[in-house]
Design goal:
Length: 410
Amino acid sequence: MRINSARLQASLETMAQIGRTPGGGVTRLALSDEDKAARDLLARWLAEAGLTVQVDDFGNMLARRPGSDPAAAPVRLGSHLDTVRQGGRFDGALGVLAALEVVRTLNDAGAVTRRPIEIVNWTNEEGARFEPAMLGSGAATGRFTKAFVYGRADREGRTFGDELVRIGYCGDPAQRPGPAHAYLELHIEQGPVLEEAGVPVGVVEGIIGITWCQVTVEGQSAHAGTMPLARRRDALQAAAHLVLATRELARQAGPDARATVGRFIVEPNVTNVIPGRVSFSVDFRHPEAALLDRLVEQLHARAEQVAAAEGVRISIERFWTSEPTPFDPAVKETIEAAVRELGMPFQRLWSGAGHDAKYMQDCCPSGMIFVRSQGGLSHCEQEASTPEDIAAGANVLLAATLRLAELVSH
Ligand code: GLV
Ligand code: MN
Ligand code: MN
């Protein structure tokens, strides 16, 4: 059994029209009108594949293809349809639409599996609109409270809860995804490892640790022409020192550490006014939890030095941590057996990106398959993978699903 590559490409292409950017990418922020259109399209395709769709109170969409054993726990496949601002066409969409392609392929073959197969579209994986990331899967697995999730606000102050209701995807708590036998997520690699190794697919060892901090620097706004340099309390000059420090700290922590300041707000942001207040994000990543903690401690120490030298106040709120998470050894073995069965060259590698599979691994055996990314680019409009590599990844997803869900007949 093999997936239909042309049909999968057509689905990816159609989905990429929703929120399409002039630069060839996609902006489909969680719970936006574009996200609603993408969800509506997915619901229609799921219905056409004979599946009924349920929606939980976090907007997570779940559809089930029954198995021959009504008592058996399902094998769950999925990812997310939201994107970052000016993101790519594959991050998330690939995992959802490849899961759909697996079900379409099974339908074409008249295949029966012992276990049910579920397709899931998790809400707000990116955290680009409502921070932190992986909010829908985290909420469904009990990591975040409903009050916390519903109260998360975007840059305009609109909340997750209000926007969920507005787009018509506030479902029922009873429809939250239940226990699963296993969870599989197909995703583009989003980095250069597979390309450098010259292999189309990867078996993911696990997901590195991620911590997000909100840094606020408070100085004093004043006139750009009249206030002498020595008397200034310039929040932006202070913030600049701290931004440079994040990279320096990550470099000192070794080749596996990452530090990114991706969101930065200057107030009042006027040419002839000394900035009085700056806030920015810090995204630290490391495969070891202890080193992640150390990076945050070092940032605090640097902030104290900068605050004293620049006459400003600096606060750092570490508001989210996703611990380093190895995937289930048996699921990894199953994926690897599926790749070998297909005769594909592959590599094992860690994920530097966060994925909903992290929170799934916290409650059921999980694993991920990566597809080679061209130029290692992702979270940008240039994100790309060849149709051949995408088909390779989707066929691994199909083969691993058949092993886990136990093919009865076709
Ligand atoms: C999700 O895309 C993340 O790794 O931040
Ligand atoms: Mn993703
Ligand atoms: Mn992403």
